[in-house]
Design a protein that fits this description.
- This protein is mainly alpha-helical.
- The chain has one domain (2-97, 108-198).
- 80% of the residues lie in helices and 0% in strands.
- It contains nine helices and no strands.
- It has helices at residues 2-26, 34-63, 72-94, 99-108, 110-127, 131-137, 139-144, 147-163, 168-200.
- Helix 2 runs parallel beside helix 9 (168-200) and helix 3 packs across helix 5 (110-127).
- It is globular.
- 18% of the residues are buried.
């Protein structure tokens, strides 16, 4: 019952940033540089949805709300959706589909290189997000989807290098990402310590049944 109510609400909420852009476009409220506004908005929301995707597992473990994991795939796909909009804005509206100029930009401008890397890394994540691919890849699916960590790192790096001067906002994202990745590292260490402790624990004496 909860899923039937929350899933459409999460879906609609994830579309609000796009609806806002469309509204501003229709009412001519995108400012003097609409391309810059669209590029910044779609890029920011791509990064926000990547962060939310990474936040779901820690929040689920810390809160015990197991149902949260049901929305991870949807949120991840919305991250890719806004990433696609961000990429299209760049190659179409900003670069006018000039392939030579795009290649030169990616090669010469580090922040473009980092952003392009983040987008490319998102593609296999989106393509293999279906239940069918999860079954086909098995344990390999989990390994493949660790690319989201590199995606997030590249995305934050793209933001920091883009801003250059006042990097306070990008550093907030960097801090959040550090906390999320740090949590995972700590949990991995705790898990290994527990496994090693269990492996070293002596078994019951011969002839004495275990509990």
């Amino acid at each position: 019952m909860r899923n039937k109510i929350l899933k459409p609400l999460v879906f609609l909420a994830a579309l609000l940033p796009l609806a806002r852009l469309v509204y501003y476009f229709r009412t001519d409220n995108l400012g003097a540089n609409p391309i810059e506004v669209i590029t910044h908005s779609t890029g920011t929301w791509t990064l926000i949805f990547v962060m939310i995707t990474l936040s779901i597992t820690p929040l689920r473990r810390l809160s015990g709300l197991l149902w949260m994991v049901q929305y991870r795939r949807m949120v991840g796909l919305f991250a890719f959706f806004y990433g696609v909009l961000h990429f299209i804005t760049y190659i179409w509206l900003d670069q006018s589909l000039d392939l030579q100029s795009i290649v030169k930009d990616v090669y010469k401008r580090p922040f473009i290189t980092a952003g392009f890397t983040a987008f490319v890394l998102m593609i296999p994540l989106a393509l293999t997000s279906t239940k069918g691919w999860i079954r086909r890849l098995g344990k390999g699916w989990v390994k493949l989807h660790r690319l989201i960590y590199l995606t997030a790192i590249a995305g934050v790096t793209h933001y920091i290098w883009l801003v250059k001067k006042d990097i306070r906002v990008p550093l907030i994202y960097a801090g959040i990402l550090t906390a999320l990745l740090g949590y995972r590292i700590v949990m991995q260490i705790v898990s290994r310590v527990r496994k090693d402790t269990a492996a070293r624990r002596p078994g019951p004496p011969v002839g004495v049944p275990a509990d």
